[in-house]
Design goal:
Length: 182
């Protein structure tokens, strides 16, 4: 019996691997959780594309809702934070398939505001624990908005900060509901 598992099914790859897999040009290797100029596959449990473009992200960028975070230890969220994220957006009739999530800790992702805006073309951006000045934005107080020409940026705490302080969680929820529903 062959002990090597070979598949190009993105659902099977997601179930078998915990790391993000990148495409190698001119290769028939499987591709998971990256973004491309075409060649899109949308399996039921996630949004998977090839890696020819400049950002690696999860979800759908066409809806105009973008979450930006910086989690160096995880592809996107810690398991506890992902659960909280899905419950939070679910309470507002959003889900992982109709928002985009960008982890700036991924070395493939440029930490440049103009490129983020050009690529994602978002209308509502939530910074989850990302200092706005790290993106060369003006300072924005936590749980506050900055209205730009194209998009509104909501700066808030990371989920880990909210787990540690219930008051931060309450402040976030009140403002986040207002932000998403506006």
């Amino acid at each position: 019996m062959d002990k090597n598992l070979i598949t190009d099914n993105p659902i099977a790859i997601q179930a078998l691997m915990t790391d993000t897999v990148f495409a190698i040009p001119d290769s028939n290797m499987p591709i998971v959780e990256t973004q491309s100029l075409g060649n899109t596959t949308t399996p039921q449990q996630g949004h998977f594309e090839s890696s020819a473009e400049e950002f690696v992200y999860k979800g759908d960028k066409t809806t105009g809702v973008l979450f930006i975070l910086r989690y160096p230890d995880y592809p996107y969220f810690s398991p506890q934070a992902e659960d909280a994220f899905l419950k939070t957006i679910g309470a507002l009739q959003l889900n992982a398939e109709n928002v985009a999530v960008l982890n700036l800790a991924n070395p493939h992702n440029p930490n440049e505001w103009k490129r983020i805006m050009s690529f994602f073309n978002p209308k509502k951006i939530t910074l989850l624990g990302v200092d706005p000045t790290s993106l060369r934005l003006p300072e924005i107080a936590h749980n506050s908005y900055m209205h730009g020409k194209v998009a509104t940026v909501f700066n808030t705490f990371s989920f880990e900060e909210m787990f540690a302080d219930v008051q931060k969680k309450k402040l976030f929820w009140t403002e986040f509901k207002s932000f998403i529903q506006s």
